[in-house]
Amino acid sequence: MKSIYLEKKSGAESLIEGNLPRPDPKPGEVLIKVHATAVTPTELQWFPTFNTKSGEPRAFPIVLSHEFSGTVESLGPDANGFKVGDAVYGLNDWFENGAQAEYCVAPASALARKPASLDHAHAAVAPISALTAWQGLLTRGGLQRGQRVLIHGAAGGVGVFAVQLARWRGAYVTATASASNLEFVRALGADQVIDYRATPFENVMCDVDLVFDGVGGKTLERSWPLLRPGGKMVTIAAESDKSSEQRVRDAFVLVEADGSQLAELGKLIDSGVLRVFVAEAFPLSKAVEAYARASEGKLRGKIALNVVEEQASGLLVGKA
Q1: Which value, in Å, is the radius of gyration of the alpha carbons in the chain?
Q2: pTM of the entire predicted model
Q3: Rounded to whole angstroms, how far apart are CA atoms 152 and 315?
Q4: Rounded average pLDDT per 10-residue block, the chain, 320 residues
Q5: How far is CA 120 from CA 83, 94, 238, in A?
Q6: How many H-runs (helices) and E-runs (strands) does the chain carry?
Q7: Could you give the 3-state DSSP secondary structure of residue 71?
Q8: Domains and CATH numbers, the chain
Q9: Up-side HSE of residue 1: CA atoms within 13 Å toward CB?
Q10: Contact indicator for 83, 30 with CB cutoff of 8 Å
């Protein structure tokens, strides 16, 4: 199968195109014909990218990208809930080869039917960010109607879903972003927006029920005093996992694959509650260029890689 992969531990500039053996689904797994996947540049710093679960170096070649949209090609033993030809989206194992290839495998439990209102490129960029927002706000944060939530990094890949989900939940949403993104974030559903460069958010906020932090560092540190008694802190900033502060480690959320949550998110997408944004889409063969573009930052939405070239066909997609 056509694939993009690394032959050594290095950066995205070393990605090469070639042919690799098509994987076979194990018990409980599904073989997916990949139509599109998404670029996550930080994956090159993740532990699972170059290591096994036991800590040993992973064998090369290594295929990146673990979120995808495509169709079911075949089912392994005891893989239930889907049939050949179903359009699906989801995540596969961080410690296994990803979806920058014509085929990938994933547990059936990590899949859901693709939102009908999205093309494959838009569906492919949703799983990690949308699940992170869902699990941070709802599962860990327990956000309820009428509560006050402060979302840092509201224009980022996860932040755009967090703002929309918090609005849907019925919370009062305050969001921090750069000046150029304030109206964009307001349009997503934020009740109050703060230009973090112009206004120290702690000067205008207090008694917050939940802080959802996508920035970390000083932003996280300055947010603790804003919580009301019993308020909750959730952070997705990677460095928080290794913090010397127990409260920071306790607040850290690492996304987990969950097909049932993806199914609920898909319903919200198809009903128009959630908009999905693709910053740009590249063909799979242009993966190196796609990573270079992603590294420039200042994107609204993630970058997609099209494995199968398709037309958007007028489907409902987010426009930044």
Answers
A1: 19
A2: 0.94
A3: 30
A4: 97 97 97 97 94 96 98 97 98 97 98 98 98 98 98 95 98 96 97 96 96 96 97 93 90 96 98 96 97 87 89 42
A5: 18, 21, 28
A6: 9, 14
A7: strand
A8: 2-126+276-306 (3.90.180.10), 129-251 (3.40.50.720)
A9: 21
A10: no
